[in-house]
Design goal:
GO terms for molecular function: DNA-binding transcription factor activity; sequence-specific DNA binding. This protein folds into two domains: 173 residues, Jelly Rolls (Sandwich), CATH 2.60.120; 100 residues, Homeodomain-like (Arc Repressor Mutant, subunit A). 47% of the residues lie in helices and 20% in strands. The two termini are 25 Å apart.
Length: 293
């Protein structure tokens, strides 16, 4: 399979119904990424420490952490590396509608799958999995299988990998939700408050001055704090949030392009189309039709 995924501050579409990248290694200091995608994505951390940003919340990640990102969900990771440290992770991503067909015989597993696919979740992270947990052996086994099987066998092997993976995740998910409920807190950091404000206001023209007044912080301090904490600027994060919503609207509505532009807080259609292509690599019309350009 792939030795790496092409990822950055952008939108990632699945090239096929399934994608698996095993033990991607990064040695660059303070590595970070913001992106979204159509499919479900599971990130498993083998080595490295940092934090993930999901739904305006910042959570710590480290070795043996599993993080789940829902379709079209804007998210980011930032990893802090020492001089000799590395960030090693595996990524399993897939189109949920394709996987659902394989789960028809398994009622309980299918119900769990639909829950994590379509509902708002209490948590999307499982931390401190046991050393030598089944995910590690499963990934190692299927990395070998997928690298050596014939093209005609790949879909079948992928489906077996995903079913086995989901079965294990289903067994550890309830315990994680219980731990999250016991340790939950309503306290938000300034970064989380900034992202929450953007979530509530991205559909209108952005004014840093209004955000500054809301938080009772200077504009300069807000900009500096956000970039230092997330690795990206407020403007870049806002664009990504708007483009993520534009992707969803293009796939799930019949609204014309100029109305989608307005729905995501922009007034200039040409600017919107340019930013959308920068973000996805495709024009809004080609994205909606599913045709490559």
């Amino acid at each position: 399979m792939k030795s790496h995924l092409k990822m950055g501050y952008n939108y990632n579409g699945l090239k096929t119904s399934f994608d698996f990248a095993y033990q991607i290694t990064t040695t660059k200091n303070n590595w970070n990424i913001f992106h979204s995608h159509e499919g479900m994505e599971f990130l498993y951390v083998h080595e490295g420490n940092g934090h993930a940003i999901i739904d305006q919340k910042i959570v710590e990640i480290g070795p043996r952490t599993l993080v789940y990102f829902q379709p079209f969900q804007l998210h980011g990771t930032k990893v802090f590396l020492e001089h000799s440290a590395v960030y090693i992770r595996s990524i399993l991503s897939f189109e949920p509608s394709e996987v659902e067909t394989y789960l028809q015989p398994f009622h309980a597993l299918k119900t769990f799958f639909q829950q994590i696919w379509k509902t708002k979740l209490v948590t999307q992270i499982i931390t401190e999995l046991p050393i030598g947990n089944p995910i590690e052996s499963l990934y190692r086994h299927y990395n070998h299988i997928l690298n050596n099987c014939s093209p005609n066998e790949k879909d079948e092997e992928f489906s077996l990998l995903i079913i086995s993976f989901l079965q294990y995740v289903k067994t550890v998910w309830p315990e994680q939700m219980q731990n999250m409920n016991q340790g939950s807190s309503t306290h938000q950091t300034y970064i989380e408050r900034i992202m929450t404000w953007i979530e509530e206001n991205y559909t209108v023209e952005f004014q840093l001055e209004l955000l500054s007044k809301e938080l009772h912080l200077s504009q300069h301090y807000i900009s500096h704090l956000f970039q230092n904490s997330t690795g990206t600027t407020i403007t870049q994060y806002l664009i990504a949030r708007r483009m993520r919503q534009a992707c969803w609207l293009l796939k799930n509505s019949t609204l014309p392009i100029h109305q989608i532009c307005q729905h995501v807080g922009l007034t200039n259609v040409s600017y919107f189309c340019k930013k959308f292509k920068d973000y996805t690599g495709r024009t809004p019309l080609s994205y909606r039709s599913g045709k490559a350009i």
